[in-house]
Amino acid sequence: MNSTTINSNKVQSKKIDSNKMKAIISTGYGGPEILQLQIVDKPIPKEDEVLVKIHAAAITTAGTMMRTGYPIIGRLFLGLTKPKNPIPGTSFSGVVEKIGKDVADFDIGDKVFGESLEIFGTHAEYVCIKENGIITQMPENVSFEEVGAVGDGPMTSWNFLQELTQLQAGQSILINGASGSLGTAAVQIAKHLGAIVTGVCSTQNIELVKSLGADYVIDYKKEDFTQNGITYDIIYDTVGKSSFSRCKNSLTEKGEYLSPVLGMKLLLQVMRTSIFGKKKAKFSATGALPLTKTKSFLKEIKSLYKTGKLKTVIDIRYDLKDVAEAHRYIDKGHKKGNVVISL
Q: How far does CA 287 lie from the centroid of its chain?
């Protein structure tokens, strides 16, 4: 995709050619300042693709980590010296504007949502998605902003709780970081699956986590859950602030520690516990799973939205031009639920 760098203030006032669009371009790895609003070529859908005019997209903690290029191992997939996919963002919701000649399941005007995991590109006005990709029609009872954040929280937490560990009714689960994007989704999904849920969050977020269905809430500022003598079948550390070794005594005899935040220590623990011991450390890269898996996750999440069993918690909304500021906000580590770009 060819691009022409333009001062972000000028982009706002300049009339955009119909073949161009506004997009955030990641010019390298580093701080929020590397994210620049530019005018670039508008994508053209291939025969098997739909062109989606984006109405909402999510900015995630994972996205801020990818912006920095750390951990370094991630650059093997993202690009060694700079992102190979310059437009960041994976989750999206919007309206189908054009369809390729071979597309049969979508029509112009369809309201859709999903994930763009191969090329990213959702922090822009338009994105092209394959018809057989991670995309589906929106339920009528949700807004663009609600489903625009589907990827980071709901789909990842569904993968961890249903696919990675097969959480069962009656099991006990502790969710560390219960007020974040993954955590707020996990509390609701765990309750849907019939689990006994304990959420861990800060003082100001206790009522939020209770409102999502948590049976018990621990204020991490007042109590260390690894020291209170209570054990759980599952500990889902959505923020990677703890570790398997710290949580081991808080797990039942065959308990499992899950975390989506991969580091060398967790990787070694996953490898070791896969062979030795009854208690396990587990990790999964949701975005790297086979397409059939992620599409099935989207189908399940859509059903939860449709039946009202899952609701999106939105902390704050930003305009596309303010994506760098949104990253600065997330970097502070205090967001509740999801941060959304509203176009």
A: 9
Which residue in this structure is represented by tokens 């054009």? 98
Contact by Cβ (8 Å): 158, 301? yes
Beta bridge partners of 71: none
Query: What angle (nearest 5°) sits at the alpha carbon of residue 192, between those of residues 191 and 195?
Result: 40
Q: What is the pLDDT of residues 32-84, one digit of tens each?
A: 999 999 999 999 999 999 999 999 999 998 888 889 887 777 777 787 888 88
Structural domains for the chain: 3-149+312-342 (3.90.180.10), 152-286 (3.40.50.720)
- Structure pTM? 0.91
The tokens of 209 are what?
């986590």
Residue the block writes with tokens 């093997």: 76
Task: Let me know: does 51 contact 13? Beta carbons within 8 Å.
Answer: no
- CA 203/CA 148 separation, integer angstroms: 28
